[in-house]
Design a protein that fits this description.
With about 290 residues, this protein is an alpha/beta fold. The protein has six helices and nine strands. Strands 2-1-3-4-9-8-7-5-6 form a nine-stranded mixed sheet.
Amino acid sequence: MKPRLLVVALVTLALGAGMLLKSAAAPAAAAKPLRVLLVTGGCCHDYAKQRLILAEGLSSRANIEVEFAHTDDKSTKPNFEIYNKADWAKGYDVVIHDECAADVMDQPYVNNIVNAHKDGVPAVNLHCAMHSYRKGFKVGEPIAPGSEQAIWFDMLGLQSNRHGPQEPIAITHTDKEHPITKGLEDWTTIKEELYNNVQDPKNFPGHHTLATGKQIVKNKDGTTKEENAVITWTNSYGPKKTRVFSTTIGHNNDTVADGRYLDLITRGVLWAAGKLGDDGKPAAGYEPKSK
């Protein structure tokens, strides 16, 4: 090889090697945090504290940033200003519904909430969200899936209309291979509310049960009875097969702050956004930020 060609070749090799070393040493570009909207407020719960517990729990377990849509209205008819906008969920990767709005029954308002999820925005629903927007509600009577009044429940993928007294709930993960529940241990809560399943979950075609709860409650005559219900599930909703994750557990602050509960909710959020690995761990780039 001629001297000049040899020099050019060596320079080319050196530059190439330098680029390879630089590429190997450079960290992978960090993924943008999941932008999560947490909606809280309404009747019967300590949402002022629980929203903070949830936000801290999620952000410490995954690459998640939580934004709040909170109202201090403690009635059964809280109004969330954000829901009055047609594109209220635009820009969010996941919406967490943690409101308690049992007597909000304005159909256009409810339709606007649900339409965001029908159009593809993933949803996570916690506890009293399952007892919200109950137009046509009658104790003990299910609302027909597919009817206009059932639009909220069709999105949830389950229908509940009551709960009994607060007693411990024994949780059994019935699908131990699903990414959300893989590796999670069965456990028993402190005193909590077990929501019933007034409609057979099989009536919701996109429903998939992840866990059931068993509770022993006392009758008025002093005897006891066993209550069982689906408490954690996923749903595939609407024409876009939107991912929806829900659990009826989470009445008391101590339950919401329990690491086992927060692990579950974090996985549910990641799964809904398509960022949960088959092993139950966050997808690359969505691990918790190092401190």
